[in-house]
């Protein structure tokens, strides 16, 4: 592969580097606290009670399910942050390797309110179905949930019903669905195993019925017990809802691994190169590159050099539209195309370059990685008259209709339509990850507050009212604070608008695992786009 | 010197000695023919010989003892001579005669000499005539039991009863008093009859604390007889030598001269030709007595080769082709000290039981005064049909202390991955205070407990380090073989909740290894205890460089199925990896006791119908040198026993079924 090794001019002794590093390390420390809270589940008492019942914690289940020493990428671990619910939203989701097959694994955390489903659990689960469908990942659910969080049922009942539809759609698409039932999965939850291709029930623990003994008694007057209505033995021997009767949790996990081993699974995307070069530069430098101050641009080539194989990069069209870097590289042995914001603003040239590059990647059937640090498309008379909207639309058209996998990494700001053009959440990237320092909003908090202030001033003037400067200052500050807090990575990640905030040093691993997962599905470039307005 | 008239030699033997003879033949430009049994078809000696005549069969009687078939093979391959090695037909006068009749040179003494020396009683008579010192001998044949006993009483107890045709300890019994004399005599007779087809036995005084010292002699057909100094072979297990050395530490020049000249005198008296060994007993009072003559090349000949610089096989071939002994034989200046040990596939902790099986790795370093005469290459099978000796390791150095240190180190560093050997015992013998001080006698292994001598050389704390290494090498192998995401860091987590775990059963018990790779490196805990100051320098599936507590070492690892071998400067360890998931208990009958790992049923302590208490040991499984007790998990009645003593079981085999005790409702 003829690709040059990117040079590095990074100075780890510079103040800039040190400031960035200290700032992002402080943010990582805060995130680690959130992760620790997620791992603690329902707390010590609840964990102890769970263990006393001879049950494994959800992460213990996942650890035994995945191949020894294989990597596991937990997705949306910060879901629910900043809400009334626990960090992680009582469910663990992620991509792991089971019997040599990359699978999507989701499992309720029964120590958190009995594994009840809240609105964020639901959002996280729905994201999971999308990931499975688009990346063609086998779906494994480790089921043990008390059902919907009843006080919030109105936000869950109607949209949440789609789970069962998604399960059967996955099955129809030839994507295996496997349910290992460790405990309660009753009423609506009973359809989770029912809609799966394979089910494994743990003896004396799985409980799957539409209505429990009291409800049956009320409805028909019949006397019954849990085992008769929904026990593992009953479902394995009589109803046939359970395909395998596991003697205990470990046995269920073993059977789950054997089921995957027998799927005759083959990835359909391009094959990875046999030999993969590690980057030439230390991943540790990414801390010094994470912009603490979003107004200061970041040299994206330094970041690319710390992510891609061998730090090798073939830049496309380097002299044209230099605010956006485009080019080819490989990651974990897979060919990728990269679009990265060298300077935050996108002009017409950058937009057209992006549209061309995205079309090339689709011709070559090569996945794209978007590295965002974008303030938006350029505004102003000259640019509007130069057709910036038209050119921005070219880029959005190309991104929207591109059919190769897209991965998005946000390393700084992501503002305005720049977020869209650079494949933000709404443009359905296969995976989207944020660095801790990144911020997302329609525009910067100060700009947004300033715009609102100008509008207020104009309104006052039009109405012939005096403009209250003091009040305006107060409002500006309040708006700025609100926008600032809602643009933080923990906020957007808490709302499940991404697949997680990552340590910058993990960028290669996370993107590598994501691209490898995406290669489970066939990669076929777009045959057609929307009309490019000329 | 004229070239040997022998151009092609058939080797009527196998294993290390066949390879040893081939080596000298190569050096002399002589073609080689091997014969082999079906069990040895792929053995190194077979592949190394120029031509091979398969004899078929497995057991010696079906193969290497078939003298007629071997002579026939020599004729078919136009071999000029047959080298019998040691054992098998080496001291079989009939075979030597058969060769003579067929016109094939037998590399050894003439058949009449072999026949005469084959009878120990006859040999003693001949030696007495040559004024070689003898122990009083009481002949048993043709004498009344009373008369024998009276004679025996005269020499005093204890006495040794020996088979006249014997060797290798068979047909040899000790009687301590008149009370057990008759029984031991009868047993010796029966053993001798069974082993040698000749029940003739004789009685000698039994000397405690004696040493076994032998003199190597060489004669040619021109009337020359020389000695090549002594070898001491006192350390024996059950009359089989396991450690041999030269010179003997107890001989001074005077005694050496007396013994060697007695040997030469004896050899001349019987017109000895070719290599021979005069075995003597040396009492604590420094009196020596003739025991027997071995009319062949000895197993321990390399000891003599090291100190003399001679090639005894070459001398044998020259002499057999009618040439006189070469001049260098007549003025040998022995140099340094040589020690040999016999590495055997046997288990000293279980009554020296021979072990058959496969070595996946068999590597003993050689060179620089270390010689390894091995039946195996770097791996190979050990068949159950023949002698358990795998290799001889011989060290040569200026002093005895240096030779023994060199030998012990080579043994400790050997990679023996497969079956049990006596390596531990050999190392402990050589390193023992007694051996170091030269206090070797034939009772050494009677005084010392083979259980202790055979115990693992690696201590429990080193084994824990080795367990950690096994885990690290295991993860490297799994990462290397991973079908997907091989580029990802080992065990990577963005939300790490627990370490990776693996369990091993070692010689000191079960170990739980927990390890976690972080940005800072690796953290390892073994049995709940963190390994201090761990720094991982290199981790591959077969080589790990790991620093523990400030000391960096290289560790070689090899995994084969669920067995893991680790070798380092800390010693050698072998582990059985405990499967992450036990076999489906669903398939097993409720209450079944399942073999936790593959092995042999060592003992069955319960019978069907027995009422047993919870925790009571029902069976004992022997695996990886350890005995594993299988206890009742609860009180109950034994409903079935699925195995019997000696049965090989796989992990997961149902050993017994227990019916749980039903609690009394009252």
Strand order of the largest sheet of chain A: 1-2-3-4-5-6-7
Rg of chain A from C-alpha positions? 25 Å
Q: Largest sheet of chain B, if any?
A: 9 strands, antiparallel
Q: In CATH terms, what is the fold-level topology of the largest domain in chain B?
A: D-amino Acid Aminotransferase, Chain A, domain 1
| CATH top-level class of the largest domain in chain B | Alpha Beta
Inertia-based shape of chain A:
globular
Overall average residue pLDDT of chain A: 95
What's the oligomerization state?
heterodimer
Distance between the termini of chain B: 101 Å
Q: Largest interface, with Cβ-Cβ < 8 Å? A: A-B, 45 and 28 residues
- The overall pLDDT average of chain B reads 91
Strand tally of chain A, please? 16
Description:
The complex is a heterodimer of chains A (534) and B (666). By secondary structure, chain A is α/β, with parallel strands linked by helices. In chain A, 42% of the residues lie in helices and 17% in strands. Chain A is built from 21 helices and 16 strands. In chain A, strands 1-2-3-4-5-6-7 form a seven-stranded mixed β-sheet, with helices on both faces. In chain A, α4 packs parallel to α6, α14 packs parallel to α16 and α18 packs antiparallel against α19. Chain A starts with 14 loop residues before the first helix and ends in a 16-residue tail after the last helix. Chain B has 666 residues and is α+β, with helices and mostly antiparallel strands. Chain B has five domains: 100 residues, 3-Layer(aba) Sandwich (Rossmann fold), CATH 3.40.50; 70 residues, 2-Layer Sandwich (Dna Ligase, domain 1), CATH 3.30.1490.20; 243 residues, ATP-grasp fold, B domain (D-amino Acid Aminotransferase, Chain A, domain 1), CATH 3.30.470; 119 residues, Glycoprotein, Type 4 Pilin (2-Layer Sandwich), CATH 3.30.700.30; 69 residues, RNA polymerase II/Efflux pump adaptor protein, barrel-sandwich hybrid domain (OB fold (Dihydrolipoamide Acetyltransferase, E2P), Beta Barrel), CATH 2.40.50.100. In chain B, the strands form eleven sheets. In chain B, strands 29-28-27-26-34-33-32-31-30 form a nine-stranded antiparallel β-sheet, with helices on one face. Chain B has a five-stranded parallel β-sheet with strand order 3-2-1-4-5, sandwiched between helices. Chain B has a four-stranded antiparallel β-sheet with strand order 6-9-7-8. In chain B, a hairpin with a 5-residue loop joins β18 and β19. In chain B, α3 runs parallel beside α4 and α12 packs antiparallel against α13. Chain B starts with 7 loop residues before the first strand and ends in a 6-residue tail after the last strand. Classes of the chains: A alpha/beta (534), B alpha+beta (666). Chains A and B meet through α1, α3, β1, α11 and α21 of A and α17 of B.
């Amino acid at each position: 592969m003829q690709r040059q090794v990117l040079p590095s001019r990074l100075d780890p002794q510079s103040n800039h580097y040190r400031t960035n590093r200290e700032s992002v390390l402080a943010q990582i420390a805060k995130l680690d606290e959130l992760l620790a809270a997620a791992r603690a589940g329902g707390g010590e008492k609840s964990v102890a009670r769970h263990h006393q019942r001879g049950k494994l914690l959800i992460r213990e289940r996942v650890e035994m399910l995945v191949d020894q020493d294989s990597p596991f990428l937990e997705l949306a671990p910060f879901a629910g942050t900043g809400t009334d619910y626990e960090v992680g939203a009582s469910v663990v989701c992620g991509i792991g390797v089971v019997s040599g097959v990359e699978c999507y694994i989701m499992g309720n955390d029964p120590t958190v309110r009995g594994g009840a489903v809240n609105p964020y659990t639901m959002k996280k689960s729905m994201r999971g179905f999308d990931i499975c469908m688009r990346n063609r990942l086998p779906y494994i659910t480790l089921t043990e949930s008390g059902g919907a969080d009843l006080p919030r049922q109105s936000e869950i009942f109607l949209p949440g019903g789609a789970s069962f539809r998604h399960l059967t759609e996955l099955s129809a698409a030839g994507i295996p669905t496997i349910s290992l039932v460790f405990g309660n999965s009753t009423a609506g939850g009973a359809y989770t195993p029912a809609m799966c291709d394979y089910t494994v029930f743990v003896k004396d623990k799985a409980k799957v019925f539409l209505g429990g003994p009291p409800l049956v008694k009320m409805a028909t007057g019949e006397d019954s017990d849990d085992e008769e209505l929904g026990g593992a033995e009953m479902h394995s021997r009589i109803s046939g809802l359970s395909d395998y009767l596991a003697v205990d949790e470990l046995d269920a996990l073993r059977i789950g691994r054997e089921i995957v081993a027998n799927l005759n699974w083959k990835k359909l995307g391009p094959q990875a190169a046999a030999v993969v070069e590690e980057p030439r530069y230390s991943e540790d430098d990414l801390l010094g590159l994470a912009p603490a101050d979003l107004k200061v641009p970041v040299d994206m080539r330094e970041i690319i050099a710390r992510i891609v194989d061998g730090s090798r990069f073939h830049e496309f069209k380097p002299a044209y539209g230099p605010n956006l870097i485009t080019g080819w590289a490989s990651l974990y042995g897979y060919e990728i195309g990269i679009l990265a914001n060298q300077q935050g603003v996108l002009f017409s040239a950058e937009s057209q370059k992006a549209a061309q590059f995205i079309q090339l990647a689709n011709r070559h059937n090569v996945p794209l990685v978007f590295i965002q640090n974008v303030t938006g498309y350029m505004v102003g008379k000259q640019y509007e008259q130069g057709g910036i909207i038209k050119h921005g639309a070219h880029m959005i058209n190309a991104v929207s209709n591109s059919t190769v996998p897209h991965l998005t990494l946000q390393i700084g700001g992501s503002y305005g339509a720049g977020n869209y053009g650079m494949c933000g959440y709404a443009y359905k990237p296969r995976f989207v990850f944020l660095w801790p320092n990144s911020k997302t909003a329609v525009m910067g908090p100060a700009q947004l507050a300033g715009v609102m202030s100008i509008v207020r001033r104009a309104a006052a003037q039009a109405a012939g009212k005096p403009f209250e400067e003091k009040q305006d200052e107060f409002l500006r500050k309040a708006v700025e604070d609100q926008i600032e807090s809602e643009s933080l990575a923990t906020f957007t990640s808490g709302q499940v608008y991404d697949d997680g905030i990552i340590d910058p040093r993990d960028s290669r691993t996370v993107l590598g695992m994501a691209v490898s997962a995406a290669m489970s599905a066939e990669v076929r470039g777009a045959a057609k786009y929307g009309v490019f307005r000329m | 010197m004229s070239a040997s008239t022998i151009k092609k030699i058939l080797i009527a033997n196998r294993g290390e000695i066949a390879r040893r003879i081939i080596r000298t033949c190569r050096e002399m430009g002589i073609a080689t023919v091997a014969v082999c049994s079906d069990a040895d078809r792929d053995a190194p000696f077979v592949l190394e010989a120029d031509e091979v005549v398969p004899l078929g069969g497995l057991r010696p009687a079906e193969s290497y003892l078939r003298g007629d078939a071997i002579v026939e093979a020599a004729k078919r391959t136009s071999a000029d001579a047959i080298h019998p090695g040691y054992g098998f037909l080496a001291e079989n006068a009939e075979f030597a005669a058969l060769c003579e009749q067929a016109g094939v040179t037998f590399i050894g003494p003439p058949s009449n000499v072999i026949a005469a020396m084959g009878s120990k009683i006859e040999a003693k008579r001949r030696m007495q005539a040559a004024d070689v010192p003898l122990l009083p001998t009481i002949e048993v044949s043709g004498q009344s039991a009373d008369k024998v006993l009276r004679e025996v009483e005269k020499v005093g107890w204890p006495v040794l009863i020996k088979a006249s045709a014997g060797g290798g300890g068979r047909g040899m019994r000790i009687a301590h008093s008149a009370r057990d004399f008759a029984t031991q005599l009868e047993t010796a007779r029966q053993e001798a009859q069974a082993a040698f087809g000749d029940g003739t036995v004789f009685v000698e005084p039994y000397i405690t604390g004696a040493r076994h010292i032998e003199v190597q002699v060489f004669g040619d057909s021109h009337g020359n007889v020389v000695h090549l100094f002594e070898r001491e072979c006192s350390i024996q297990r059950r009359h089989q030598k396991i450690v041999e050395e030269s010179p003997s530490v107890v001989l001074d020049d005077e005694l050496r001269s007396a013994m060697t000249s007695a040997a030469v005198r004896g050899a001349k008296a019987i017109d000895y030709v070719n290599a021979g060994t005069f075995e003597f007993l040396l009492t604590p009072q420094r009196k020596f007595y003739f025991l027997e003559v071995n009319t062949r090349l000895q197993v321990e000949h390399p000891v003599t080769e090291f100190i003399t610089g001679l090639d005894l096989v070459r001398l044998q071939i020259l002499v057999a082709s009618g040439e006189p002994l070469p001049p260098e034989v007549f003025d040998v200046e022995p140099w340094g000290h040589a020690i040999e040990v016999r590495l055997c596939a046997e288990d000293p902790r279980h009554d020296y039981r021979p072990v058959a099986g496969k070595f996946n790795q068999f590597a003993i370093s050689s060179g620089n005064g270390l010689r390894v005469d091995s039946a195996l290459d770097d791996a190979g099978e050990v068949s159950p049909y023949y002698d358990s000796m795998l290799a001889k390791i011989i060290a040569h150095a200026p002093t005895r202390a240096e030779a023994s240190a060199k030998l012990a180190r080579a043994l400790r560093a050997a990679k023996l991955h497969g079956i049990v050997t006596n390596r531990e015992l050999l190392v402990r013998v050589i390193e023992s205070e007694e051996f170091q001080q030269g206090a070797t006698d034939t009772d050494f292994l009677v005084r010392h407990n083979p259980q202790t001598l055979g115990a693992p050389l690696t201590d429990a704390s080193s084994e824990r380090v080795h367990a950690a290494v096994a885990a690290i090498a295991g993860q490297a192998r799994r990462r290397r073989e991973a079908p997907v995401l091989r580029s990802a860091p080992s065990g990577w987590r963005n939300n790490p909740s627990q370490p990776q775990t693996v369990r091993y059963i070692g010689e000191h018990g079960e170990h739980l290894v927990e390890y976690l790779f972080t940005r800072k490196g690796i953290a390892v805990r073994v049995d709940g205890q963190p390994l201090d100051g761990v720094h991982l320098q290199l981790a591959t599936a077969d080589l790990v460089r790991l620093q523990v507590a400030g000391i960096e070492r290289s560790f070689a690892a090899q995994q084969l199925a669920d067995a893991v071998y680790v070798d380092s400067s800390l010693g050698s360890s072998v582990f059985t990896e405990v499967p992450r998931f036990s076999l489906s208990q669903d398939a097993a009958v409720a209450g079944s006791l399942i073999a936790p790992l593959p092995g042999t049923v060592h003992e069955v302590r319960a019978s069907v119908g027995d009422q047993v208490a919870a925790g009571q040991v029902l069976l004992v499984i022997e695996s990886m040198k350890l005995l594993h007790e299988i206890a009742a998990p609860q009180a109950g009645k034994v409903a079935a026993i699925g195995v019997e003593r000696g049965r090989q079981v796989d992990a997961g085999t149902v050993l017994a079924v227990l019916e749980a005790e039903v609690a009394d409702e009252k």
